[in-house]
């Protein structure tokens, strides 16, 4: 009795699977693999019907066992060929995923390029627009004969002159931060070295820079992104890590540019890393975006009290 019940249930399941598979055929745009698998399910349901007739009818629907055997052969053929063809679906999924990643990289690259162009334009406007005005103010103040001024006015004059001088210096620093002229004029290594010297001017942090790459092999986009990434890392070390030594090694090997950044500061505990191993709350989002836009990879190694290190790989081709 139990076997008969199980046969009824299995036959209903197979009929349901066959009907459901056929109903989805249109959504698969009549894919060959899906058609063959659906036919296999239909034949399996028919075969189960033959088994069903043995237990519930006085005679089989078809007494010839040869028919039942050929149905089994057809099921095997349909399923085998269907599984072979289904590889195309997986290949299509892989291609779609590849296109999605390429599209994401292109979007990130376009956003970053737009940001860099906006930075350059803003820096140029500051330098060419506000710079001459501040210089003119400084020149006008320098023309004043301060010997004829009263002590109070002389003090005010000196304060205004120093303010104009400091404003010009601050303007140059802002313009250089937005669009570093050293990067364009002298290359990536010199730009990073100058930035680090200015950042660690107090002398409390030792910066070690090792360069082993050909500047001519780097695209302009890669140079800018590497400079921005290193600048962000240096700022993070200064603000959060309290290190004694910071080191950066940039090497080129087999068509790949490698950046190896280390500091011996306080490190990052695991609670400050997300599921992907990315640092949280330390301006790391921009670093990740720039890395992805260049089809690069990175690996972080850190622990509380054991410093911080990250290695980037950027393809040059």
What structural class results from the helix and strand content? alpha+beta
Considering DSSP H and I runs of 4 or more, what fraction of the residues is helical?
A: 55-70%
Strand order of the largest sheet: 1-2-3-5-4
Largest sheet: 5 strands, mixed
Give the gist of this structure.
The chain is an alpha+beta fold and 317 residues long.
Task: Describe the protein's architecture and organization.
Helices cover about 65% and strands about 10% of the residues. The chain has about 325 residues and is of the alpha+beta class. The chain has a 5-stranded mixed beta sheet, with helices on one face. The two termini are about 70 Å apart.
Blueprint (SSEs and pairs):
Blueprint (H helix, E strand, L loop, with lengths): L1 H22 L8 H25 L8 H78 L8 H28 L2 H6 L1 H12 L6 E7 L7 H22 L3 E9 L2 E8 L20 H10 L3 E6 L5 E8 L2
Parallel strand pairs: 1-2
Antiparallel strand pairs: 2-3, 3-5, 4-5
Q: What attributes characterize this protein structure?
A:
317 residues; alpha+beta; Heat Shock Protein 90; 12% strand
